[in-house]
Amino acid sequence: LKISGEIYGGLSTKEEYGNYHLKAQFKWGSKKWEPRLNRKMDNGILYHCKGIQGAFWNVWMNSLEFQVQEGDCGDFYALGVYGDVPSKKIVNDKGKKQFVFKPGAKTNYAKSKKQAPNYVKRKKSYEKPMGEWNTFELICVGDTSLHIVNGHVVNVVKNARYDVEGKTKSVSRGKIQIQSEGAEAYYKNIEIKPISKFPRKYKRQAKL
Asked: I need a surface site. Which of 14, 23, 32, 57 has the fewest CB within 10 A?
C-alpha cells in the first residue's frame, strides 16, 4: 500500500473489528507535503473508529490513534475516543508536562486537551533507521489495546470509551483507518486475525 501523503485523508475498513491482532510492515518514503514540509514525517493507524467520516478535524473519524510519526511510532492520541494509560508524568525538554507510558504504573486519563492530556508518549523508540521496514502490531482485546513496535510493547490503552448523546459508552470495536497526513509512506503484509487473549510475551511486557 503506497500512501502519497499529498492530501489529509484516510483509508477505512468497511467492517468494524474487535478482539483482533493487526500486524503490518511499514517504512517511510522520501516526500513530504504542505503543511508539514518542515516537520516530522507523520502518519497513523486509527482504530475503534466511531461516528461519521470527518468528525475529527473534518478528515478522520473519532478514534484511538497508534501514532506513526518519525521518531514517535507507538505514541497514543485520543481523537474523540479516549482511555486510561499506565504512565508517569514528566517535564519534557520544552518545559511542558506530559505523560509517558510506564508498564504497571497507575493509569492516567487521556481524553482531550480541554479536559485532560490527549497524548501519551511511547516509553522508548524501537524504530529502525529511515527507509528500513518496521513491524507494527496492534492487539485489541475487549476495551484494552497494545501498541507494539518491532516486537516491543510501547503503549497500553485501557477502558476505551466514547461520549455520545450525553452518555459515556465502553468501546471494544470499530472501523480501522490508515492515515495520509503529509508524508509518503508504505505498508505491506497487512494481516488481521481474531484473538481472544493477549499473547503471553506481550502480556508480560505490558504487565497486564
From this structure: 14
CA-to-CA distance for 169 and 143, rounded, in angstroms?
Answer: 11
Per-residue pLDDT of 156-172, as tens digits, reads: 999 999 999 999 999 99
8 A C-beta contact, residue 183 and residue 36: yes
3-class SS at 200? helix
Low-confidence residues in the chain, pLDDT < 50: none
Burial class (CB in 10 A: 0-12, 13-18, 19+), 174: buried
Residue 178 in contact with residue 47, Cβ under 8 Å? no
Residue 78 and residue 57: Cα distance in Å, rounded?
A: 13
Nearest to 70 by CA among 100, 27, 102: 27
Pairing of strands 42-50, 20-32: unpaired
β 97-101/119-121 pair status: parallel
- Closest Cα to residue 53, out of 104, 9, 116? 9
pTM: 0.95
The sign of the dihedral angle between the CA atoms of 12, 131, 6, 117 is positive
Phi, psi of 202 (to 5 degrees): -80, -35
